Amino acid sequence: MAKSKKEDKASKKALSSGNLFQQNAVSMLYSLGKQPDIDEVLRKAGVARHRLKILLDDDEIAQAVETRIDALLATPFRIEPSDTPEALLLMQELKEWFTEIASGAVNALFFGYSVLEVVYEQKPEGYIGLQWIGEKPMQWFEPKNDGRLIYRPEGTGQEIIVDQKLKFLLTRRKATYEQPYGKALLATLYWLNFFKQNGFKFWAKFLERFGTPILLGKCKESETSDMNQALLNAHAQSVLSIDADDDVEVLTAGSNGTAGASFETFNNVLIRQIQKVILGQTLTSGTDGTGSRALGQVHENVRKDKLNSDIRMVTPTFQATVNALCLLNSWPKHEVFLGEKTKQLNTEQAERDVKLKNAGANLTQQYFTREYGLQDGDVAELPQGQPEQRFKAIPNRRFSFAASVKDLSQEQQELDELADPNMQLLSDEVIKDLIANSTGIEDLQEKLFALAGGAETSQFNELMDRALFAADILGYVHSKEGR
Q: Which helix (H) or strand (E) holds 354?
């Protein structure tokens, strides 16, 4: 008991001192001035983060980046709730500026962070909407590890803490306390692009030197200078006249193409590495260019994973835009969702639920809404007093005749289930007496009508029509199935 009291005092002491509501492990090294970029790749390369955009001029990087951006731009979106007048206005604003918001926010993937500025205006419809929204140069801003965003106007030396609720929208990728600038994907590609560009320079010099054959002249009696001049003229005119004792040879880089094959291998490796960094996978990765359907499916799955990752990164920026519009117009809260609305059906789970239902388990509407992505109202409730019609092939024996109960078939059991359990016009003993005293079907029918004359005509006819119709339909089905 004494130990528990000590622990309680310790917790209350920590709470009273405020340690639970603030960060204690805080470094004051970068409290003043701009925090340096600690990215190791950028530090060793001596390149500023915003200068990574020069990598987008590379054809392979630009193509892979466009593929990833286009997948995000083609993603559908929706507003929930969607049946309010405000939702229609929000959809109108987002449709107009979707490309600008998505393109600006997704740049955080390539540079680590991006900043969008929003300009509002009064719309003719009477609400405050978007006049302009777009990305501003990232070097003007500095994200802090405590969530603040610092704006430094060029040439002023001032530091302004900007508003991130209405005016500026910050998007970051894999930001940490130590690295609030986020992880730039283009930084990973820096050295790959460096070797790719220098490899092309080496190849260009190689072709310049060895692409054109070199003429080697061997002269005996004539002067060397005369032979040299004759070879230079031969390069321009492709004609050469020499003495009978002189000799001219053609020197090439080699007929086996070793240098060309080496450069092609080198370039292909770099291209595959670039594609794997940006797209996550290539169709020929690890298969020496052969490819397969299974590998294509893997590529498709990885592509979806990358798209889902990009959607998760930019969704807070879209939500911040919606929140700002709702706040300025005093609208109720709305949520924006990017991606397909429908949820993929889990076949194994659906088959399991069918078996549970047939076994008598009553699954609630909350279960279907949660597990199958349904909305409220998608699953209709049965009206009270109307039982659910289904065949369980379980005998519902109202007339317990000893001769018939022993050999009831599945078809007879299903037909028996259609009968109303509340309709008990005649008892079993009366039925037995009628069968024993009847001479035929017509005689039995007349006696049944005589005994059931007290029932309502509409009720009797309705039950009789249902039974006859069900018997007729089941008869066709069972006959077709050979039962």
A: helix 347-358
Q: Which residues contact 270 (CB under 8 A, 6 or more apart)?
A: 192, 195, 196, 199
pLDDT tens across the length of the chain (483 residues): 455 666 666 666 655 556 667 777 776 555 556 778 888 889 888 899 999 999 999 989 999 999 999 999 999 999 999 889 999 999 999 999 999 999 999 999 999 999 999 999 999 999 999 999 999 999 999 999 888 999 988 777 788 999 999 999 999 999 998 889 999 999 999 998 888 888 878 777 777 666 666 666 677 665 667 676 776 676 656 656 566 566 666 666 655 556 667 788 888 888 888 988 898 876 554 444 555 666 666 767 788 889 999 999 999 999 999 999 999 999 999 999 998 765 566 778 888 888 888 877 887 877 877 777 676 666 666 555 555 555 444 444 444 444 444 455 655 655 555 555 555 554 556 555 655 565 655 665 566 566 665 656 655 554 345 434 444 554 544 555 555
**165: amino acid identity, one letter:** K
Report d(CA 8, CA 116) in Å as an integer. 48
Q: In the chain, what are the domain boundaries?
A: 35-204+259-339, 212-251, 342-381, 402-480
Q: Are strands 214-218 and 141-143 parallel, antiparallel or unpaired?
A: unpaired
Tokens of 462: 């309705």
426-464: burial string, b at 16+ Cβ within 10 Å, e else: eeeeebeebeeeeeeeeeeeebbeeeeeeeeeeebeebe
Q: What strands lie across the sheet with 160-161, from one edge to the other? A: 141-143, 149-151, 160-161
- pTM here is 0.63
For 145, residues 6+ apart whose C-beta sits below 8 A from its C-beta are 176, 177, 178, 180
Instruction: Count the helix, strand and coil residues of the chain and give each as a percent rounded to the nearest 5.
Output: 50, 10, 35
The secondary structure of residue 182, as a DSSP letter, is -
CA–centroid distance for 138 within its chain: 27
44, amino acid identity: K
CB proximity list for 462: less than 8 A, separation 6 or greater: none
- Count the neighbouring beta carbons within 10 Å of the beta carbon of residue 306: 19
Q: Tell me if 190 sits within 8 A of 226, measured CB to CB.
A: no
CA distance 374 to 380: 12
Cα–Cα distances in Å, from 425 out to 371, 402, 433, 454, 469? 45, 20, 15, 9, 20
Distances (CA, A) of 246 to 6, 239, 252, 306: 108, 15, 20, 68
Amino acid letter, 327: L
How does strand 77-80 pair with strand 128-136? unpaired
**Residues β-bridged to residue 121:** 129
Q: How many CB atoms lie within 10 A of CB 156?
A: 8
3-class secondary structure, 189:
coil
Query: In this structure, how many other beta carbons lie within 10 angstroms of the beta carbon of residue 214?
Result: 13
